[in-house]
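Give me structure tokens for this 196-residue protein.
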Amino acid sequence: MNSIRPSAQAEQPRGLAFFRQALKGLGVCELSVAVTAFFLAVILNFIQISLRYAFEKSIWWSQEISLLLMMIAYFLGISCVFRSRQYIIILMIVERLPQKIQLLCYYFAQLLTIFFCTVILVEGFQIAPERLTTYTVILHFPEFFWTLPLLVASASMILTSLYFSVSIWNESVKNPGFSLSKLEALVLVDKEADQK
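Here you go.
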């Protein structure tokens, strides 16, 4: 990856550069919320376990809050992983394909992601009225609260897929010989991309 130009991020068209910065800001917010939610869930569960075993006491509302915190941490965390491209891919197969086939497979994968996340969003908003009037047993929160992290993560992943699809297309026109992994490295959203 040493052949990648250090100023590649600055060479993006203004709209894509703005989109990248907006996604980066969204990523910082999502990661902060996900880490905070995970930390609070761990602390709450530690307190609950300590109270049960040491004092035979219990926090009656801890299970619902803990579950909500873990839903937030999980779905926003997955969105962050997707944005930073830290998921598992099989490069040894992809890199052997011609660049046009690599790009077609890439666009198809992005299209599937957008389709899947759009289905989740549509279904989530269709069940929202029912979920807003159905309440949890203990704290009587609307059950929609447990659906909301999934909807936010799905919308975020749609935006990320759109950004990478357009950015990869833009870079593939400028760099016709580059492999998919090199093209993607040119348009990364995370802070490590600024250091390349």
